[in-house]
Specification:
Blueprint lengths: L2 E5 L25 E5 L7 E4 L4 E6 L4 E6 L4 E5 L8 E3 L5 E6 L4 E6 L4 E7 L8 E5 L2 E7 L6 E7 L6 E3 L15 E3 L7 E5 L7 E6 L6 E7 L3 E8 L5 E8 L4 E4 L15 E6 L5 E5 L7 E4 L8 E3 L12 E9 L5 E7 L5 E7 L7 E5 L3 E2 L5 E8 L9 E8 L2 E11 L5 E6 L5 E9 L8 E9 L6 E3 L5 E2 L3 E9 L7 E8 L7 E7 L5 E8 L3 E7 L8 E9 L3 E6 L3 E5 L2 E7 L5 E6 L6 E10 L2 E11 L5 E7 L7 E8 L12 E2 L3 E6 L1
Parallel strand pairs: 1-51, 30-36, 38-44, 47-54
Antiparallel strand pairs: 2-28, 3-4, 4-5, 5-6, 7-8, 8-9, 9-10, 11-12, 12-13, 13-14, 15-16, 16-17, 17-18, 19-20, 20-21, 22-23, 23-24, 24-25, 26-27, 27-28, 29-31, 31-34, 32-33, 32-35, 35-36, 37-39, 39-42, 40-41, 40-43, 43-44, 45-48, 46-47, 48-51, 49-50, 49-52, 52-53, 52-54
Organism: Kitasatospora albolonga
Keywords: Signal
InterPro entries: Quino_amine_DH_bsu (IPR011044), WD40/YVTN_repeat-like_dom_sf (IPR015943)
Length: 666
């Protein structure tokens, strides 16, 4: 133990100061699931319902990526330079991929996921967009360094493949690039085509029943920069997605007369039609929904999808042009999105045929217990609710924490509903209403809480402001007044100091007199808290009692040559050439210091000569030497103290040793 030195020739000096360290620790429906797609670009996307796979072409990387329905990559087909359009055979056994960089169309076995054929279309043809119709595989080609665009066919019905080019000769250069093609099994001899990358778009319809493409209709769409087109399952209409106008245009196939459009929003860039006629209309929208779902011929979307933002800009991820594909059974819609970091994701959208509902409950903020109250609510959706629709209402309170059913409540035509209830219990009462999912709508739940009044009860706790010796077991008693069902009280002890957390020291039912007691060992000032959690009729109550604990402290004088009494007081006698040691032993606490006080008796009265604080060692000891020169014949005394807050902490109550008396002689 290091010895500190002080002098009687000068006043005591404060030898340390304490430092306190404080530390701290520091709408529209969303896509249902997604996975990052390892693709640098996207040309086309098709879905194989037989094997439950999705195929995505990547022109920039020259590959086709195959995933399962969850978006997990199962195969990659490389060495396909510039691969763009994809087409699936009617039996889902073969995937055809147009590869302009190889002037070829590649056939891939969807069961084995192996390329099994590569059909040469001709030098500098650059085929891009395949479509099956009339027993042949048709494709748009040309336009990139090879002159104007045109339409060709690939006949695979014979022993050898037969390629026929220039199927849509056009002296007026209708196709200045490879036209985008579309077909549908419901109209097997109809082929639709459209210009891309032009400020003024045109579409055409061909009858391919004879094996050649006979144009039956041609029309300017009045739009610019065609992005995608699709035929309805019966082949009676073409739906077009162009950068403008800001809706998805519809044209009658027979004469390309304009029909009622699908009201999406700015910058349409994709369209895909399910076998049942449901239209998925996609747009390039940062701040608007990205995909709109329209039942066949509907004037209003049954559902929208707004993709989240996974990049760095303020808007959401955006839909890649022409990157929508239905599962053949209509159970899900696949979409490819891109963020500001050029990362692409395959998103799987489900429940596309159901209108998204939202439910709101409105209950009074406060209500008296055992009195009838009225609550209301509303279920909203873009599609009208079926007749007889209902919501289920459940009340949750302190006496029914798992909920008590209040039955079903009918929806009015506008989706509103109301109900009455008489809450038997007070406190927080929650009313939760649920609209169950059906054939046309998704499920939704809403809730609102009511603060129901409760009577006050009395709760008392003794020993407040009491002072106790160090390490004493002190009994605290809580007294609970009248309640309904709950007679349980919790007693918590929270010793002063951040290193001693609050602890539950007893929990139990009070006795017949409403009392519950616990013994707490006091080594520090301690706050004891009594807690009544409340019940259905009486409000919670908490009371606190702070009891104070002294430290354990002693002071020992050493190096004196004898002890004798002066009057009734015992003194330690020191030779004036000897320096006394004062050893203080005190309950240790990090950063704690003892205060040493010195007094001198002059003409029968004690006077302060000084005081100072000295840090405690790890074992709670502090040794201080009183250096000379020492005056002879004066009565002196010394004591050690812990001073709350001034001794470096505030976890105990101020405690003093008794005075120790000493005198110097010759």
């Amino acid at each position: 133990m290091r010895t500190r030195r002080i002098s009687t020739a000068t006043a005591f000096a404060v030898l340390f100061s304490s430092v306190v360290l404080v530390g701290g620790a520091a709408s529209p429906a969303a896509a249902d699931s997604s996975r990052i797609l390892p693709a640098a670009s996207v040309g086309d996307i098709v879905t194989d319902g037989l094997h439950q796979r999705v195929f995505v072409s990547d022109p920039a990387s020259g590959k086709v990526v195959a995933t399962d329905y969850s978006g997990k990559v199962v195969a990659t087909f490389a060495a396909l330079p510039g691969v763009r359009g994809l087409e699936l055979s009617p039996d889902s056994t073969t995937l055809y991929a147009a590869v302009p960089g190889a002037d070829a169309i590649v056939a891939i076995d969807t069961a084995t996921l192996k390329e099994f054929a590569r059909y040469d279309i001709g030098a500098d043809t650059r085929p891009t967009h395949p479509a099956l119709a009339g027993g042949k595989l048709w494709f748009g080609y040309g336009g990139d360094g090879g002159g104007g665009g045109n339409i060709g066919s690939l006949d695979l019905s014979g022993e050898e493949p037969v390629v026929t080019l220039d199927q849509a000769p056009d002296p007026n250069r209708l196709w200045n690039s490879a036209p985008l093609l579309a077909s549908t099994p419901g109209a097997p001899t109809t082929l639709a085509a459209g210009t891309q990358d032009q400020s003024s778009s045109r579409i055409a319809v061909y009858d391919v029943a004879s094996g050649t493409a006979a144009q039956t209709a041609l029309q300017s769409t009045g739009s610019s920069y065609l992005q995608d087109l699709a035929l309805t399952p019966d082949g009676q209409q073409i739906v077009v997605a162009s950068s403008s106008p800001y809706h998805h245009q519809v044209f009658r196939t027979s004469d390309l007369a304009a029909g009622k459009s699908y009201p999406s929003t700015a910058y349409p860039n994709a369209v895909e039609i399910a076998p049942n006629g449901t239209v998925a209309a996609g747009v390039d929208g940062w701040y608007d929904p990205d995909v709109y779902i329209f039942p066949k011929g509907a004037a209003k979307a049954v559902r929208t999808y707004d993709f989240p933002n996974t990049g760095m800009h303020s808007g959401s991820d955006t839909l890649v042009p022409a990157a929508l594909s239905w599962a053949p059974d209509g159970s899900r819609l696949f979409a490819v999105t891109v963020n500001s970091q050029n990362v692409r994701s395959l998103r799987v959208l489900t429940n596309t045929n159901k209108s998204v509902t939202s439910l709101k409950v409105n209950a009074p903020a406060k209500a008296p217990r055992a009195k009838k109250l009225t609550a209301s609510g509303k279920v909203t959706a873009t599609v009208a609710f079926p007749a007889g629709s209902k919501v289920t209402v459940v009340r949750t309170d302190i006496e029914s924490p798992k909920g008590k059913s209040l039955g079903t409540k009918p929806l009015n035509a506008n989706g509103t509903f109301s109900f009455t209830d008489t809450p038997p219990a007070g406190g927080k009462v929650t009313y939760r209403a649920t609209y169950a999912a059906g054939a046309t709508h998704t499920a939704s739940t809403g809730a609102d809480a009511v603060t129901v009044s409760r009577a006050a009860t009395s709760l008392k706790l003794d020993r407040n402001k009491s002072l106790h010796a160090y390490n004493k077991n002190v009994t605290f008693t809580a007294t609970l007044g009248k309640t309904h069902k709950n007679r349980v009280v919790e007693l918590w002890a929270d010793p002063f100091g951040a290193d001693k957390p609050k602890k539950l020291v007893k929990k139990g039912k009070v006795n017949s007199k409403g009392k519950l007691s616990v013994k707490v060992n006091l080594k520090r000032d301690t706050t004891v808290t009594a807690v009544f959690a409340g019940d259905g009729r009486y409000a919670p109550k908490t009371v606190k009692s702070t009891a104070y604990a002294k430290v354990k402290v002693s002071l020992k004088l050493s190096k004196h040559y004898r002890t004798a009494k002066i009057g009734k007081t015992s003194y330690a006698y020191y030779n004036k050439k000897k320096n006394p040691d004062f050893t203080t032993t005190m309950t240790y606490y990090k950063g704690r210091a003892q205060r040493l006080s010195l007094q001198l008796n002059y003409q029968g009265k004690w006077y302060d000569t000084g005081q100072a604080y000295f840090p405690l060692g790890a074992k709670g000891k502090s040794v201080v030497m009183l250096e000379g020169p020492h005056d002879v014949g004066y009565k002196m005394r010394v004591r050690a103290s812990y001073i709350n807050n001034s001794s470096g902490d505030s976890v105990n109550s101020t405690t003093h040793t008794g005075w120790k008396y000493f005198i110097f002689t010759k």
